[in-house]
Amino acid sequence: MVHNNNGVKKEESLNDHFAEHLGMTVLERQAGYARVAVTLNKNLMNGVGLAHGGLIFTLADYAFALACNTYERRAVSVSASINYIYPGKAGILTAEGKVVSENKKMGHYTITVSDESETTIAVMSGLAYYSKRLILEKGHDNIPG
């Protein structure tokens, strides 16, 4: 069994190759909750030297996907919106996704992105649709749509 550098099982990352390519790391994952991080570098910054908005959205979206795919059922995003509050300037950004409310078919999640000083730099609201199809233990069929 492969683990990342935080001891989280590799399959807990949903085999998300894009998140892996960007250097995102799963810090914690449990039912309805996930926390992920990325260390900023020059390739993740925009033209004015701040964390790229697309990176911040992607980090939040990754935490959202991990949090809503923890019930051994497939979940896909129906909608997601983000509000940028402060710029990400340097260091490590962390996204924490939590279920707010849910029923058998849908779940509402809030994802907060913070910098190293724990300043909230963005807040995402996401709505997930829960499929009856179960997440498979092995292979690539567990990647959310």
Description:
This protein has a single domain, classed as Roll (Thiol Ester Dehydrase, Chain A). The model is unreliable at 1-8 and 137-145 (pLDDT under 50). It is built from two helices and six strands, in the order H-E-E-H-E-E-E-E. It starts with 16 loop residues before the first helix and ends in a 15-residue tail after the last strand. Strand 1 (25-30) and strand 2 (33-39) form a beta hairpin. It has 145 residues and is mainly β. It has helices at 17-21, 53-68; strands at 25-30, 33-39, 75-84, 92-102, 106-114, 120-130.
- Order of strands across the biggest sheet? 1-2-4-5-6-3
Rg calculated over all Cα atoms: 15 Å
Average pLDDT works out at: 86
Helix content: 10-25%
Integer tally of domains:
1
Q: What labels describe this entry?
A:
single chain; 145 residues; mainly beta; Thiol Ester Dehydrase, Chain A; 6-stranded antiparallel β-sheet; disordered N terminus
Please summarize what this structure is.
With 145 residues, the chain is mostly beta strands. It has helices at residues 17-21, 53-68, and strands spanning 25-30, 33-39, 75-84, 92-102, 106-114, 120-130.
Secondary structure elements and pairings:
Blueprint: H1 17-21, E1 25-30, E2 33-39, H2 53-68, E3 75-84, E4 92-102, E5 106-114, E6 120-130
Antiparallel strand pairs: 1-2, 2-4, 3-6, 4-5, 5-6
